[in-house]
Amino acid sequence: MTATPLASTETAPGKHLGKDLGEEFGAELDRIRSEVIAARGADDARYIRTVMATQRGLEAGGRMALAVSLFPPAWAAGTAMLAVAKILENMELGHNILHGQWDWMGDPATHSTTWEWDFLTPAEAWKHTHNHLHHTWTNVVDRDRDLGYVVFRMSGDQRWRPRHLAQPLYNLVLAPFFEWGIALYDLEPDAVAAGRKTWRSFAADLSGFLSKAVRQLAKDYVLFPLLAGPSALPCLLGNLTANTVRNLWTNTVIFCGHFPGDVQTFTEEHIEGETRGQWYLRQILGSANIEGGPLFHVLSGNLGHQIEHHAFPDLPSNRYAEIAPRVRELCEKYGISYVTGPLWRQYGSAWGRILRFAVPGK
Fold this sequence. Notes:
Blueprint: H1 18-39, H2 42-66, H3 72-98, H4 123-136, H5 167-174, H6 178-186, H7 189-193, H8 199-227, H9 232-258, H10 276-285, E1 289-291, H11 294-299, H12 306-311, H13 320-334, E2 340-342, H14 343-356
Parallel strand pairs: 1-2
Helix pairs in contact: 1-10, 1-13, 2-3, 3-9, 8-9, 9-14
Protein name: Acyl-CoA desaturase
Pfam families: FA_desaturase
Organism: Streptomyces stramineus
């Protein structure tokens, strides 16, 4: 981690820079963004279409192998291919397409308004809670519901309740069932209880979730096992294993990008009168990168570059590796913390945060 310490959450993001330097910092990031937008073209389109073709090939190969999975080698190969296909579909395709990163291509196959992913939560519900709420109010207590997903306490500014003592157990249970947790979270039952969401709206969202869930469950646990005939049971178990692996991986990447101990959180007072430069700064301070090679970054949806993703959520994900050194250099220039580290360290640090805030106190 580069650790030129910035102010803690006792100070609003950007105040140590002063107004002029804060806006200069924001302008330099805007310049990076404009350059990438101007450079988007055939190579980027080729990249996302290659990932899509690879994902579809892996899924088809996995499905075919599981159709004859009475043979253990076929089961292992089919389950592995299907798990990787689901990870690619969820992380590098679904997450990034739904951010609108590829809308500029004008291709319905990669457009945020037409994509529906292989995930329990409907795309529109996820775009509301993730794109709008989380990316706007990143790590602002009581505004960003992703800060602990309602059930976890991840900041000393969040009120402690006795139920938080069990949050290490919550995460152990959540990880293998992550898509279920996100789907239920996207229904916003807490917002209904608080009066911020009507029962009618909740009922409509619940109907959409149930419809999507039925299709997902029928596909993986009824249709394909039946098509496998004598291999129905191992096929079903292969699908279950692939979904579980995808959930564990997604949970790990998300928690490592948002909750390591050096990631900062903020209160609503910190964002009063927030400028563009201060918004950028909050995104950077509220995120963490995960170091790894090219394959790791593709499988993580390029969310190993979580800092760059939060600063530029709608830029093509394959560009994050290119601009990350420039963003890091800017942070060093302005004395801003840039939290980065290998997967094992970030994962351990995230667990440290879960354990630390499970007990009372800041």
